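Model it.
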Amino acid sequence: MSEELQETTEESSGGLTSNLAWFLTGALIGAAVAVLYAPKSGKDTRRFLSDKVQQSKDAVTDTSTTIVEASRDMFERGRKLVEDAADLFERGRKLVKG
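Modeled.
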């Protein structure tokens, strides 16, 4: 039963990261469209866009760092599960051989 809970937790955390990335992408596109239709001078608009692009780069960097850390954590948990399974298999083999 705990394996099912663990799989569900891993699936939901992966979906959350994906949903967050799509949300940020949509927000950036919406902001860009809004800026293009805003009644500001070209210089102000370029400055605003430049600031928003920098903020977007920072957000993507932070998100990618989070994704990398989560991936490493999942990899380590998977490796541990494989090691545990191999250990259980070896113990079972020894019990069968007597």
